[in-house]
Amino acid sequence: MTLQLQKINLGTPPLGRDGNSNRESSAKTNDNMAAIEAWASALAVDVSALTSNAGALADDVRALTGAVAMFACKTPPAGWLKGNGAAVSRTTYARLFGVIGTTFGAGDGSTIFNLPELRAEFPRGWDDGRGVDAGRVFGSVQAQALSSHQHKTAIGFDGSNLFGWGDGNATPIFGSEVQSGVLRVIGSVTQSGGAARVAYTDAALMGVSGETRPRNVALLACIKY
C-alpha cells in the first residue's frame, strides 16, 4: 500500500491583523499533512510486514498439527482436541487426518478416523530401531509390566530360622517370630529336615495397586488439529 501526499494550495492568504498569521497557518497545515503522510506511510509498511509475518505464523501453527500436550484445565484450548480416542470427521479435521491418518483407528473406514486414546496413559518415545523397546509398533498400546528383580530381607530363614508346615501341601505355619507387614509367602517352599525355607513379600510396607506406576499428576492430554 502506497500513500501519496496531496498538499492544499490556498494561494496567497490575505494578511491577518498581525500581518501574516493566515500565511503561517497555511504553512503549518501543510507541514502537519506532511508529517501525517510520513506516519501513514510507515504504518503501511508495518501492516505489509505484519501480513507477511501472519503467513509465516500460520505455517508455524500448521506445523504443530498432530502434537500432543498436557493442559492444566478440563477443557481443550482452541485448536486442540481431547486425546480420548474419539472418532472425528476426516473432512472437518482434514489437516490432522493428513498427519496421523488411521494410526489410532480407521473409524468407519471412509468418513471418520480415531484420535489417540491418551486418558490414564503414560506416553513413551517410540523405539524407532534403537532396540530398547524392540519390535514396538508406532502408536501401539503396551500393557503394564514389572521388570524381573530381587528383594533382600533383614530376616534370615536359614539355620535356626526355618519354619515347619502343618499339612501335605507344605502350607507354612508362621508364629509370632515373623515380623508384622508380611502379606503372603511367594515362591516355592523347600523341605529340609522337617522344616520349610520360605520367601515373603513386604509389599504392605510400600503400597500395592492393580498397576505399576510412579508418582504422577492427572492433567488433560490433547492433540493439535
Explained architecture:
Residues 66-123 form the Phage tail collar domain. The protein is α+β, with helices and mostly antiparallel strands. The protein has three domains: 1-63, no CATH class; 65-148 and 212-225, no CATH class; 152-201, no CATH class. Helices cover 22% and strands 14% of the residues. The strands form three sheets. Strands 1-7-2 form a three-stranded antiparallel beta sheet, with no helix packed on it. A hairpin with a 4-residue loop joins strand 5 and strand 6 (196-201). The model is unreliable at 154-162 and 175-184 (pLDDT under 50).
What is the overall silhouette? elongated
What distance separates the N and C termini? 34 Å
> What amount of the residues lies in strands?
5-15%
| Rg on CA atoms, Å | 39 Å
Question: What keywords describe this structure?
Answer:
3 domains; single chain; 14% strand; two-stranded antiparallel sheet; 225 residues; alpha+beta
Q: Helices and strands in order, then pairings?
A:
Blueprint: H1 21-63, E1 68-71, E2 80-82, E3 87-89, H2 94-100, E4 112-114, E5 184-191, E6 196-201, E7 220-224
Antiparallel strand pairs: 1-7, 2-7, 3-4, 5-6
Question: How would you summarize this macromolecular structure in one to three sentences?
Answer:
By secondary structure, the chain is an alpha+beta fold. The protein has helices spanning about 20-65, 95-100; strands spanning about 70, 80, 85-90, 110-115, 185-190, 195-200, 220-225. The protein has 3 domains: about 1-65, no CATH class; about 65-150 and about 210-225, no CATH class; about 150-200, no CATH class.
